[in-house]
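Friendly challenge for the regulars: who can give me the structure tokens for this chain first? No prize, just bragging rights.
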Amino acid sequence: MIPAGTPSQRPTDARLLVVGADGTLRHASRSRLVELLRPGDLLVANDAATIPASLTGVHARTGRTVEVRLAGRPTLARSDVRRFTAVVFGDGDHTTRTEDRPPPPPLEPGDLLLLGPLRATVRSLLAHPRLALLAFDGRPSRVWHGIATHGRPVQYKHVQQPLRMWDVWTRVAGLPAAFEPPSAGFLVDWALLDQLRDHEVWFASLTHAAGLSSTGDPELDRRLPLDEAYRLPGATVDAVRRTRARGGRVVALGTTVTRALEHAGQRPGGLRPGDGLATQRIGPGTERRVVDAIVSGVHEPGESHYDLLHAFADGSVLSQMSRALEELGYRSHEFGDSVLVGV
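First reply, four minutes later:
Bragging rights claimed.
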């Protein structure tokens, strides 16, 4: 697999590896996705807008430079923006591999971080020297303004040119909530929505605070995904119920959609609208209650996104998938090609 290094959301040569429910593999152009769905199916996307979650600044006690990558907050309420879970790095930027980034200066509760116009206090460490709970000073409007004016999109070495905000917003972006882009949704544009309608495939969305895909630390990466807040609209719940009633399939556009729907579907009373906090991990042995198939980016074995695919296909099928992706040079990461698993 080749890391996609150009921030193009819908390249004309994007490919799609289709992994059937029976384990068969076939290759297609990603532009043919709608043709692989059936009338009566429902495609669900994550409509979270990506916030500029990378904040550079200074660790006040030592005077050393740090980069703070915001990684989570308890709810999606606009006013709930003063406390974040964050991964903290030492000096450097995305031009260095995340795995090679230096650690931050030793963090202690009460430490002050000066992040451009923002001031954040370390409230506690979360069982790892890079993972901290931060509290920001000021009113919510001031915190939002500081993030918007000082922050940059979280970025990794495989994309060299600096990312702009429009590179990481999907065409259905709404509420600012995601810390990294819900990149499976990059393939959505108005032309796709027209194709879905013409093919009698329904479309719905939810909002899920997609978190970091990598921290650069193996121990911390094993804890991914962290807890992620989501909001499930009533219209989407109704669409899922109608799809089930007419025998259609629910197809999740991305791992974040899968995580939100499956978490909501396991709550007492089943799927219902409202806010939630996805705390579960999905993988081998997970009993899916809502999602029948998934469209995802191309990921390496061992990554949390790849592990989630074990809920849709067994290990031997995923190994065949990985070999095919490798042999044919599929592009990985957020601007890469895609897989469709479980149809």
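The chain has two domains: 2-49+162-341, 53-150. The two ends are 23 Å apart (CA to CA). Your move, everyone else.
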